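Deliverable D4.2, example record:
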Amino acid sequence: MADTAHAKTAAHVHHPDGHDHGTYRSYVIGFILSVVLTAIPFGVVMAGGLESRLLTAGIVIGAAAIQILVHMVYFLHMNGRSDEGWTMMALIFTVVVVVIILAGSLWVMHNMNANMMPQMNHDGMPQLSGFGT
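Output generated by the structure prediction step:
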């Protein structure tokens, strides 16, 4: 009897297979948070951005990072207890790989831009002398 009462009042339901499954309430909370975290950067960008491009980019990236966490917690049901911690280890490995890929890509693009041939402008088109350029 107590087990049934606990299952009804718990924020999530435990199933015999050991995995946590969300409730209707948790899915609604996740959906609302996702909509808000999508609307904020969309509104900022559609309004023309802020005075500082860096601050605008920071808001967009910050909202995206928070939205990733919302999706992992509310829809993928990831926590430190799932699958004896293997889910968290997979998450940490994925984050490390993504950071390495992004940092490497930015480094390569920066070096390509810095080492561009002098006769090329930054649009990728050659500058023709004598034609008003």
